[in-house]
Amino acid sequence: MPKGMFVDTTICIGCKACQVACKQWNVLPGEPADFRTDPAEKIPVAVNFTGDSYDNTADLTGTNWRRVRFIEQFPENRAGGRWLISSDSCKHCGDAGCLNACPTGALVRTDLGNVVVRQDVCIGCKYCLPSCPFGVVAFSHQTGTARKCSLCDERIHNGLGTACAKACPTGSIAYGEVADLKKKADARLARLKELGHAKANIYGYREAGGLNVFYLFDDSPSVYGQPEKPVVPQGRLVLSSAVTVAGAIAVGVAALVAFRERGDGESRSEEVEK
Amino acid sequence: MSPEVHAPGWEWYYIGLYFFFGGVSAGAYFIGSLAEFFGGGRHRGISRTAFYIAFPTLLVTPPLLIGDLGQPLRFWHLLFDARSGFPYVNLSSPMSVGSWALVLYGAMALLSFLDNLVAEGVLDAAPFAKLYSRLPRKVYAVVGSAAGFFIAGYTGVLLNVTARPLWALTDPLVGALFIASAGSTGAAAIYLVMKWRQIHPGPELEEFERFDRIVKVLEIALAAAIVIAAGRYAGALFRGPYAVMFWGGAILLGTVVPLASNVYAHRPGRHVRSEPAAVLMACLVLFGGLLLRISLIQAGQL
Hints:
By secondary structure, chain A is an alpha+beta fold.
């Protein structure tokens, strides 16, 4: 029975307890600063530190496996506006691009449906990074491997929930059986629609083969920084290979046209010599 | 498709150079094999030179591939399961299948290379002669050229089958472009080495250049299709250093100028090809092939 998480972003308060719990349980160090010299400032600036948002992680990385996204929609005059807050992590896709792309078998799906990077097997080829349509898997220069949320693999295999869900004070992150969570999500969506949230939607029932970690959004997914139609890239593998084979045949035909024998006796005698 | 899809951070001096050397090696190998198949014995100079190029250029590639890994000492996990030690392949991963293709192609390129050495008397044939009489040259040239085409093309499929916008939108064209480019860079390498070894190709050079013309037209058509397919993500190919590399290096100097020179040299009523010009054009083709790989790999990661 697949386990997963339901993230109800409408009740997230942006406290980042999930980020802290994730770092503590998984023993993740602080994000290494990426210093670059800003031409305007003429001093080195850590470009991966935000400083302009309550979102302090800016991206999912090798050391930040959970990211509380702050979507701060305020007009110039500060009249009105809204906060949208969404705690983001690996979605543990039903059809996982990273898993399909891994050349070593370092990425595996466990019996509980979560997708894990085995750190002792990963060679750090980085091919899973561009293969994840959600931009989740990241490379860690500290370990030389790809790293991401494991759905707290060792916790859930010992009857505990995920660390982030355990720490969440509002119940925005709920851990459990995916089937049970879907019932909960459907009920919550129906309630929000009653209350007039016309754009409310559940993200993850159909995307990428069904996400084991799925979301309730109050606006379209792109507002929350998620792809509207995530494409698992390996779906294109057959067509891409077929066109490449056609290219090979075209070059082969070019060679045939250019090099074919034109029935002169001289070449025959050379072939016999061979 | 999201602009937040992570870039792998592949370095041009590892992956870009690997794509280039792999392409030159594979291109030279399949041209050598095809010239031998279709041309009877007339192209022995071309095929011998091709097999001399294929293996040494391939030898450059494993250090490049392993150097880019975060855990280089674990490179063998690409071929064998880390826990059981059994051979491992993931058929949905171009990188996994490509690793095995490299092994197969490497073996074929080595056989052809040794075969050359025996045939030219550089190597004592005694230990090899029995093996070669059992395994006819054409068998491993067929398997080898198929593997060569695979090596030349899988790198493009590997880029296309990702979620990075530029690579995903240009699907499924990059593999075919890389095969065409492998054909023209392989041909250029063969030409340069033939000059260096002072083998005068004579009349078959004309057939060789005819092949080159067809492949370059294919290359230009595919490159144009790729820019169109990239749509709004083609920006990285129009601005900045990779625009210069792609348009100035890969397309203009690497393809259009050599094609024009080739066509000009073979215009009706003229039969003499200026040799320094041909050498220069071959150098430009190789340079352009390198910049094509680097610009497409790096622009896709911006």
